[in-house]
Amino acid sequence: ARPVTLATLRGKHRRGEPITMVTAYDYSSAVHVDVAGIDLILVGDSAAMVAHGHDNTLPISLDLMLEHCRAVVRGAPRPLIVGDLPFGSYESSPAQAVESAVRLAKEGGVDVVKMEGGTPSRVSAAKAIVEAGIAVMGHVGLTPQAISALGGFRAQGKTVDSALKVVEAAIALQDAGCFAVVLECVPAPVAAAATTALQIPTIGIGAGPLCSGQVLVYHDLLGMFQSPAHSKVTPKFCKQFGNVGAVISKALTEYREEVEARSFPDAIYTPYKMSSSDADAFA
Ligand code: KIV
Ligand code: NA
User: Fold this and answer.
1) What's the Enzyme Commission number for this chain (predicted)?
2) Which residue(s) pair with 114 in the sheet?
3) For ligand 1, atom 8, which residue shows the shortest CA distance?
């Protein structure tokens, strides 16, 4: 088993210690998240947007999610790894949900799965996955896979009626056996009410400070998309903890300029000498 387990998270929650989660989609991002000491890695279907350039999360397939999961698992031996069930892989029936969750666990190598929504049919699906032996993280509030029905990426739970729906959905997911619930883009008092009402941890994104933990998208928090050439916008709830996009652009531009000026590679980066045998060719 990995160093971070459900028991680790329960302990943190019991002691009132914040739980940390970040997305990762490939080997190198997973290595960085692991080294930073983050508790949970979410192999999010946000990969559709930040890794594949789509405008929303709908297009990514289960097979492609599995590929991302395998790469992340290879890069991050320490954190608990959450695989996101992509759009179209779990809505039809609890049996379809179990089948897809089993593939994420068995072929993708993830420890637990996450699924969006808290309607009765989603709650039944969550329950079926837990009964199959795979732990489930719920996700309510803004559920990006429902962008068509929601009419866009917009905050949820702003009225008392819809706030109640968010909290009730979170409770229903807890009762179905979920070990935690993501609260996305809801007013802080709604997230606080859900966190108080639940025995399991809440993980907030755009949901204010009163959650049991926080999650952000890797590319957003690193400031990956900030050069004017990029169309991807960082959501307004996301603090950019780095300027990685600017660092990457500067390095790539300097590389191009040095090659064009023939100043790279100079003698330092021209290590191979002629010799009488090929035996030391890679020395
Ligand atoms: O896919 C994702 O990145 C997510 C987080 C925003 C919670 O679901
Ligand atoms: Na997601």
Assistant:
1) 2.1.2.11
2) 84, 137
3) 44
Query: Mind giving me the DSSP string for 39-58?
Result: SEEEE-TTHHHHTT--SSST
Positive or negative, the Cα torsion across 250, 255, 260, 263? Answer: positive
Euclidean distance between CA atoms 110 and 64, whole angstroms:
14
Indicate if ligand 1 lies below 6 Å from the C-beta of 46. yes
| pTM score, whole prediction | 0.95
CA distance 135 to 99: 14
Please give the average per-residue pLDDT across 159-163, as a whole number. 97
CA distances in angstroms from 42 to 33, 34, 203, 209, 265, listed in the order given: 10, 12, 12, 20, 39
Average pLDDT of the chain is 95
Question: 20, 46, 147, 203: which to mutate for ligand 1, most atoms within 8 A of CB?
Answer: 46
Question: pLDDT by residue (tens digit) across 17-67?
Answer: 999 999 999 999 999 999 999 999 999 999 999 999 999 999 999 999 999
Mutating to test ligand 1, I would choose from 57, 186, 222, 234 the residue with most ligand atoms within 8 A of its C-beta, which is 57
Residue 243 pLDDT > 70, yes or no? yes
Write down the pLDDT at residue 230.
Answer: 54
